[in-house]
# Entry
Amino acid sequence: MSARVQLASAAGAILSLPARLIEPAMSGIQRGVGIKRMPWVFLLPNLVAVILFALLPVFINVFYSMSGSDRLFPWDRPFVGGANYQSLLDCTNYLDPSTCSRDLFWRALGNTMVFVPVQVICMIAIALLTAICLNRDIVGRGFFRGIFFFPVMLSPVVVALTWQWILQRNGALNGLISAAGLTPVNWLIFPNTAFFWSVFVTVWAHMGFYTIILLAGLQAIPRDVYEAAKMDSASPWRVFTRITLPLLKPVMLVVFILAVIRSVQTFDELYVLTGGGPGSATMLMVQYIYEVGFAAQPRNFGLAAAASLFLGLALLIFTGIQMRISRGGNND
Amino acid sequence: MTDLSQAKPGLSIVEFATRRRGRKRLDWTDWLTYLYLFLGLVVMFTPVLWVAISSFKTPANLTEFPPTLLPYANQTAVVEGHDEPLPLFDVVGEDGESRRLAQLRRVGIQAQMVDPANPEERIVVPVGDATPVRQLYLATENYTNLLTSSGGQIWRYLFNSLFITVVATAITLVMNSMAAFALSKYRFRGSNIALVSILATLMIPATVVLVPTYMIVAQLGLVGNLWGVILPTVATPTGVFLLRQYMLTIPDELIEAARMDHASEWRIFWRIILPLSSPALAVVAIFSILSRWNDFLLPLVVLTRRESYTLQLALASFQTEYGVRYEILLAMTTLTALPLAFAFIFLQRYITSGIASTGIK
# Structure
């Protein structure tokens, strides 16, 4: 037996060792609890993890939002009732964040309220356009699909650093601009341009994901519907609004809901790209939660939990509105 | 002999290249489509390409504005009597003749130069008359510096990222498929409640329960520990759902037959159901690997010690620490993106079909 085969079989034995140990243990358990209870044995690890890290935290989060001090463990924390919510909502004028005691919360909330609709609508419009182009009978479809999709695979940190490198004062974009005879702009220094590029970069990074889903939806539309429209010499625009969009509606709803849920939770890219700046111009809710609960000293877990409940509420409202709109549309 | 180009007279090269099934010519919508796709190609691909090219530039080349398209470096020459290689300049003399000189030092608007052929004689030249001699140069030392800087810490970060990704994915696969097996192949009281409570966690984004998750990790004593990032992420509802839907299509007769042969339930699961579920397992594995490798917020909160940083955390912290050392930052950005770029080339089909069928990520 050659050395390589020996090595491979040794590696195989080591890798299968846990499996070999589990099998007698599991048949022992089966003899102990009986075959009827075996599904619960199979479910147990996953259920424990789900309860410990998803369901239980929801309830603990509510308690956090109603307790004070910077102590981490719930049993060390005094109950303060609605004080955290009161602090978040304490404003003399709700239209002016600077009159609020937690003005950063209101700025983050306001930014999120603008960011989410703008980003989601831009992203889905571009993803739909791309999907339609990729659905046509063109040369190099697989190649172009890959090109539009690959940023989805990149880590948010890589995405942010890539664009930072392009947008910086002496970056490639300003190089192109000055080559065209225009004045270079320091893109990430001004609130408006920083906000624009925040939307642009997150759309750039995530649109491929939605393009793939929409493309699958488009491919599911039967070809003969289009053939029939061609027979009636319908204009491309009419085909799009009367055939493509209505038939794509279920997929569009899924895409909208997924996009909104992720857009509301945007954090990583902007944390690295702009750090929420300039000032607080691109700070969104998740970053506020992170800053208040983890980055600032002393850590204010109560406020972070209260803010994250607002975030959860916002998610529910956004999703609810979309379900409403889509159901309303089905009636006509 | 038949000449192929003569086969269809009157067919130009453009028409030949763009000829397709069905219709003969491209109409305006096709041109618009190609225009859009090529614009997309530029916008989607050049940023990453630009970072990769930039990572091969020397620090001096990186600070130039406007930036050069390709990495350049000053050509240097070893001159007798000087230990370090000296940068070369083309100098236009008063007689209008160009000479290639090596620069010793620069003082204000004057530069002290020396002719490599005649190292004894020093020449003072106005800076304006000298243009650097440049050549294409790949600054691979950016990468070697990165790998050796601060005692090879990057290997530590790489190990942490790999450990988290591999272990979390392995646990996810085993745990999710166990749950999926129970929820697809058994009828028992409470199975619907279990399924619904697992799927309900789809509605609970990790960012919303960040504080209590951190508390539970801290209670388990796992702050600053790689397991503190692994455990909260292993029970993915989408994984259970996808695997359950797939296992429902596996015929129950296989299980019945195995039970006749007195196989234990675990053996049925491990030897029959798991191998048959490998396509679904592959999709779950790819998405688990992707999200664990790219994870940022939970590691940022949990992994507080420098030794426990993942590549992503280290990269983000490099940004502030090495703020001026762009060459290191760019090399590390490229290196972090590389494994996934390679994986993508091989796995694109699985990934896109996985997304298209489930909408998971």
In short: Chain B touches chain A through 96 residues (CB under 8 Å). The first helix of chain B runs from residue 13 to 18.
